[in-house]
From TrEMBL:
Residue span(s) of domain Nucleoside phosphorylase: 55-168
Lineage, highest ranks first: Bacteria, Bacillati, Actinomycetota, Actinomycetes, Streptosporangiales
Organism: Actinomadura meridiana
Pfam families membership: PNP_UDP_1
Domain of life per record: Bacteria
Keywords linked to the UniProt accession: Lipoprotein
Protein name: Lipoprotein
């Protein structure tokens, strides 16, 4: 019998994690972000977070990473959105405030990455066409299909989410150019690991006060 490659636990055994856990929907996203992580495990939760049951029962924080679609023209392909709030689309879902988003954005910026902070919405489908404008009018800046699902499982644990923009207004997903944009986004995602780990250390040390206002709905 082999141990779990993420937790190190034997089959049937649950092992608590002390540090944060990074969550990615797809293997390509997980492989990219792992390049910059020295000590943080990555869990592949699947498309639409269908394998969210892979997440550990205990860890310091959950960080959702991957690609996303911009809803307004202020975000260009290759930019990163750090979520300050994560919204679901169900009638009974409340937004989840993210932990120290501006601190995470600052750390990413230190590594020369183009970063903005704003609201993220999770849907069960690819957002395109007129729906982009409708979601943007509601305050969301990027759409994905996993973050709200992961945030709902976090309980009282800190949650963060960052998305590298692949498509958006003027840059449709279903277009030959998406291949080049996807490769560029993967390179950006591969550079995010060090900032995520610095952010998590600062969070543990209680140095996230600078993000207090951003966490207030």
């Amino acid at each position: 019998m082999t141990s779990d490659p993420v937790t190190g636990a034997e089959p049937g055994e649950s092992r608590a994690m002390v540090g944060p856990v990074v969550c990615a929907a797809l293997g390509v996203e997980a492989r990219a972000v792992r390049r910059g992580l020295a000590r943080t495990p990555v869990v592949v939760v699947g498309y639409r977070a269908r394998r969210a049951d892979r997440l550990p029962g205990s860890c310091a924080a959950l960080v959702v990473v991957g690609f996303g679609g911009a809803l307004d023209g202020r975000l260009r392909p290759g930019d990163i959105l750090v979520a300050d709030q994560i919204h679901g689309t169900g009638p009974d879902t409340d937004p989840v405030a993210c932990s120290a988003p501006r601190l995470l954005a600052e750390e990413l910026g230190r590594d020369g990455l183009s970063v903005q902070v704003g609201s993220l919405v999770t849907t069960d489908h690819v957002v395109r066409g007129k729906e982009r404008a409708l979601r943007a009018a509601g305050g969301a800046r990027v759409a994905d299909m996993e973050s709200a699902v992961i945030a709902a499982r976090a309980g009282n644990r800190p949650v963060a989410a960052l998305r590298v923009v692949v498509d958006g207004p003027g840059h449709p997903l279903f277009h030959p150019g998406v291949i080049g944009r996807g490769l560029a986004a993967r390179r950006v995602l591969a550079r995010t690991g060090p900032a995520i780990e610095r952010w998590s250390l600062l969070l543990v040390r209680g140095e996230d006060e600078r993000g207090t206002e951003a966490r207030t709905p």
